[in-house]
Amino acid sequence: MSITQNNIDSSKASTVPHGEIAAAVRQAREAIGYTIADLSETCGLTSEEIVDIEAGADSDPAKLRRIAAALQVAPSTFFVV
């Protein structure tokens, strides 16, 4: 069975809780030895934006994709795509 828009039950779609996203971002950043300032410079977000993401206060998918690219990990590391 192929997946199409018609056979996806959106009520059963998976989402990752903000706390898990925050932990995944922090873990990926620390795994390559980046500080928040390093990540900020690499992905173009402010340090404050990264702090908010790592605190679980923000989970903007566009920001998460930028962070994933900067850390050279798949975006799915941070959320279900």
From TrEMBL:
Pfam families: HTH_3. GO terms for molecular function: DNA binding. Residues 25-78 form the HTH cro/C1-type domain. InterPro entries: Cro/C1-type_HTH, Lambda_DNA-bd_dom_sf. This is Transcriptional regulator with XRE-family HTH domain. It comes from Rhizobium lusitanum. The lineage of its organism: Bacteria, Pseudomonadati, Pseudomonadota, Alphaproteobacteria, Hyphomicrobiales.
